[in-house]
Amino acid sequence: MSFVYPWFLWALIATVIPLIIHLFYFRRFKTVYFTNVKFLKEVKEQTSTRRRLKHLLVLFARILVVVFLVFAFSMPYVPSKSGANKKGNKDVSIFFDNSFSMAAESEDVRLLEKARSRVQEIVSAYSVNDKIQILTADFEGRDQRLLTKEDALNRINEIEITYNVRDLSKVLIRQKNAVNTGKNKIKELYIVSDFQKNITDLDIYKDSLIDLTLVALQSVQNHNVAIDSAWFQSPVQSLNQPNPLVVKVHNHSDREIPNIRMSLSIDDQTRPLGTLTIPAKTSIYDTIDVPVLHTGWYEAKLNITDYPIEFDNDYYFTFKVDEQVDILQIHGGTPNRFVEATFSNNDYFKASSQFVGNLNYSNFSDFDLIILDEINSIPSGLISELKNYVSNSGNVVVFPHPEADLVSYNNLTSQFNANSYGDFDQNKRIVSYVNFQEFLFNDVFEDRRRNLKLPITQANYRLSRRAISGEEVILRYRDGGTFVGKFTIDKGHLFLCAAPLGLEYSDLVKNGETFVPMLYKMALSATSENKIAYIIGRDDVLETDNRTSNAEMVYKIEGKQGEFIPEQRTMGSRIMLGMNNQIHNAGFYNLYLKKGENHNKFGYNYDRKESYLFYYNTEDLSNILGENVTIIEGTDTNNFVEIINSKNQGTILWKWCLIIALIFLAIETALIRLWKA
């Protein structure tokens, strides 16, 4: 046993006071009146013995009262085995988990408020000379240093729920870095958290120089349903056409959740989508049609009803329907009339044609699709520009010339690791396969009947497959050769056709149910094929078209939290935007150069990592981290300050000393009043 204030033991000298009183009391004489001397000797002997015993017991009781009162003021304790009772000032780091999962209920308060109370009690257990870090999931710069006790208590009151979520292994590294900057020799760490399984990535703790204590908080209920993600079935949304959106909703609880209502808000109108019943620990997929009634940008929000965890009930997404699709037809002398006719009767498409010798390469970025219409030879300059164009999300389709310069053609295909053109075959070949899974034909035919009329070619080039071409076949001949193939390069595509467009070589142009939708979808696939939603903290770099060549013009982003200027880096016709953790709230954000002229829109959502409400209990944590870690159940503990003091100093005994002193005081009172000696 040790004492916090051992110098107070000098007060044990006060035990002589009861002794002096006792000796003084024994010198007093008491007169006894009697009438019969027959039993005088016997009465005298009995009375003297009982009185002496009574006074000795009273003396011992008084001495023990003084002794245990002195012990109580000396603060005795039994030192803990962990050695946390080392004397001296301490450097302490406390991680206050303020992530979204801490919004769950614990008894009658949120876990966040319970955690705030526990962190305050931990800080209160330390002296004014100790240095304390209060670290949150935000990892703010101001929280990377050690504070005084008073400043630490003030910082605790400022902490609110945050969208950030941190793996505890990274938290532990931050804490160690902070306490190692301190000058005190004793280092202690605390993690106050609900210890979700998907963030608790800690291993056996082996550091003997820094004490680690875990304060585990558990919510009363752990059911939660979240909108996990959503995506369109087609990469491009079309005007006045069905636009199916797939929504993934996940039940994170261990029981079935019925009657989850879902709704869609778009164009300032909200429409209900029905109810969902989701089995335990399961995701379900629901497909809804998103109405597209006009061109331009759309801001849309999916919502479900679920309580108490609500941050993942909304899913924000944006998409754009271009007002016009621009097509450039590059020809060798005369443009193919069937290609021109395909786009001439549709105002949504604007097609123009240019002779291969009169091209303005700088305008390529203005077009969504470039068609090489039976050019005899492809110039090297055009090949270079087409590669840049495709790399920046452009689409190119090649219809070969019947007497093509194969060297120039294959120079083009080699730039894209695409198939190469071989000999010109005069034999008839029949197309027998359509890739209905590909965007070009996935929603063209309502009845994918076997007797679908497909193109027939009278002459064509043999396309030789490269080992690393990555070809996706769109249309295939009966003999297994490719008629139309697709090759993806960065965000763009190259389409190769095996046959010329002339009627003497192929009837593709007369096959309206194949040729027309194929060209339409090739043009559409180059329009707004962007991500529809982003994750705060995870998607920290965005890529979009660059609309200015003026280096002094800067892009700005505006949303709920106001306006800010992102980091900007130009890469050709694209620009990279760094958010640098400046987006904190889920919602819609506009990108613009001039106020009111939005260049792009982004839908940002909170990270769904916090939706997973399964936790480690104290026993699990003990098994994971080993015996070198102190683990405290922080939810139901009433005497939490005493537990922290016991951890820091050992088993505190002053209360027991005070109780024992009161017991002996009661014994003394009973002896004096009840024992008639």
Structural write-up:
There is one protein chain. With 677 residues, the chain is α/β, with parallel strands linked by helices. It folds into five domains: 2-79 and 654-674, no CATH class; 90-221 and 613-649, Rossmann fold, CATH 3.40.50; 225-322, Immunoglobulin-like, CATH 2.60.40; 325-524, Class I glutamine amidotransferase (GATase) domain (Rossmann fold, 3-Layer(aba) Sandwich); 534-605. It contains twelve helices and 36 strands. A nine-stranded mixed β-sheet has the order 17-16-18-19-26-25-24-21-22. β31 (567-571) and β32 (574-578) form a beta hairpin. 34% of the residues are buried.
Unreliable residue stretches? none
Whole-number tally of structural domains: 5
Cα-based radius of gyration, to the nearest Å? 41 Å
- Which shape, going by the Cα principal axes? elongated
DSSP helical segment count: 12
CATH class of the largest domain: Alpha Beta
Average of the residue pLDDT scores = 85
CATH architecture group name of the largest domain: 3-Layer(aba) Sandwich
The level of helicity is 10-25%
Query: What kind of assembly state do the chains in view correspond to?
Result: single chain
Trace the largest sheet across and list its strands: 17-16-18-19-26-25-24-21-22
Structural class: alpha/beta
CATH names the topology of the largest domain as: Rossmann fold
CATH homologous superfamily of the largest domain - what is it? Class I glutamine amidotransferase (GATase) domain
Let me know the number of strands: 36
